Amino acid sequence: MVAEGWAVAYRQYSMDYVGEEDQAREGGRGIWSGELVRPEDWRRGQRTSQSRAAPHQNSRNMPDRDCSDFSTWQEAQSFYEATGPNDPHRLDGDRDGVACEGLRR
To answer: Is the torsion defined by CA of 46, 50, 51, 53 positive or negative?
Structure first.
């Protein structure tokens, strides 16, 4: 399902399907053919991309953050996802969608 673009890789639980998700997203397959609100964002009450605009602006105006600013990987990943596309704080060095991978160990 992930490879065909009908599911997302849940990175917080496993990295097994990240490659398949990347290929589906790059190919514009399934849910990646349009705008997507990720399931974890939907559960937090975000229903459209419009609701992402304010957090992105606020996080971009704050001081730069790096991985040493976070206590846990979950905290870093949540911040990374909230700051939006293009990784303005450079938390994802290998650009795989996972922030501060060193904190996962």
So the answer is: positive
Q: What own/partner pairs with CB < 8 Å and gap ≥ 24 does 5-13 have?
A: 5/29, 5/30, 5/31, 5/32, 5/33, 6/30, 6/31, 7/31, 8/38, 8/39, 11/77, 11/97, 11/98, 12/74, 12/77
Q: Give the start-to-end residue ranges of the domains of the chain.
A: 1-36, 38-104
pLDDT digits (tens, 9 = 90+) for 30-65: 888 878 888 877 777 776 655 444 444 444 456 788
pTM: 0.44
